[in-house]
Amino acid sequence: MLPDAEELPEILLDLAVPHEDINELVRLRRVLARDTDAMRLLEECVEALVKDIGEYGHWTRLTELLLARLPEAPPEIGSYFSVYVFVAALPAARAYHHERGIPADVSRHTLADLGRNIAVNHKRYGGGGVPIPQWLVPHFRGELYQLGRLQYERARLGERTARGLAAAGLDAEPGTPCLNLHIPDFQGPLSPTACERSLDLARPFFARHFPEERHAVAVCHSWLLDRQLKQHLPADSNIVHFQERFRVAYDDTEPADGDPVQFVFGNSDLPVATLPRRTSVERVVGDHLRAGGHWYLGHGWFPLQQPSL
Q1: How does the average pLDDT of the chain come out, rounded?
Q2: How far apart, in whole angstroms, are the C-alpha atoms of residue 189 and residue 295?
Q3: Looking at the whole model, is its pTM more than 0.90?
Q4: Contact status, residue 22 vs residue 16, Cβ threshold 8 Å
């Protein structure tokens, strides 16, 4: 199920795994391989991950399963166990991409998000591995694709989003196919040009490779869509331009202060009083919290069948 120790480094490099993690993953592979219970756990996790590959909407179930089983992994392996699960699932993911005619560069960039997530873990917590594996579930199930600056997840409208679209006059109901946008870190500026190029790639990509699905709208659920940001950032900022692509689907009333702190500063547990003020976004996020304000997840959409607004 796992590539041997000689093959593993090249596979990890293809997945953009940071160089400093490769020797440790090769070493721990031997620990994993001689533990019968751990190998059985690996097999069960991989089987669940790739079952009905290509079908979407299983993110919650598979996330709960993986998170529930991770504590059973050998303590010495820790959060690196998730990396072995995704590496072992790689042949199934690549086979599905081949079946769908996904271009090699799109497949490579999409699956290389494994390495980016390990880099994010280093940035946030100072360690390797993937302690929060749910973000990679759709990548290895053929549900999500990296196309330029943005990632697009084949998804279905939730109840509140569907109500917002219906109120705007669209023929939308819960379960209608859509594309859920994700904004990965370590991918350069979120510039209007980069976003437009990404959307220009996405429109024909899904029509060509998933012709049985009609994705009429793109949706996004992110702190980057909190409309308060527009009050504090310059009108020509990348975040403001990104927000202007979207129409509001619905508003959240529950604060989500941890999201901007995590994504801007790297760790949601950092004390608000000590947050740095090095960039305009850092100043806006930290100063707003220090003044007693809160941040919220924004929920937006725009039509895909025509240029975004």
Answers
A1: 93
A2: 22
A3: yes
A4: no
Nearest CA among 16, 18, 277, 15 for reference residue 123? 18
Q: What's the CA gap between 171 and 216, in Å, rounded?
A: 10
Q: What is the DSSP string of 93-153?
A: HHHHHHHHT--HHHHHHHHTHHHHHHHHHHHHHS--S-S-GGGGTTGGGTSEEEETTEEEE
Q: Which long-range contacts (CB under 8 A, 24 or more apart) does 272-279 make?
A: none
User: In this predicted model, what pLDDT tens digit does every residue of 36-89 receive, in sequence order?
Assistant: 999 999 999 999 899 999 998 776 777 777 777 888 888 999 899 999 999 999
User: Does the pLDDT at position 306 exceed 70?
Assistant: no
Q: Which residues pair with 157 in a beta bridge?
A: none
Secondary structure of residue 63 in the 3-state scheme: helix
CA distance 132 to 121: 9
Phi, psi of 187 (to 5 degrees): -125, 15
Query: Hey, how many other C-beta atoms are within 10 angstroms of the C-beta on 290?
Result: 12
**Length of the chain in residues, anyone?**
309
Give me the pLDDT at residue 305, please: 78
Q: What is the pLDDT of residues 214-262, one digit of tens each?
A: 999 999 999 999 999 999 999 999 999 999 999 999 999 999 999 999 9
User: Residue 223 in contact with residue 260, Cβ under 8 Å?
Assistant: yes
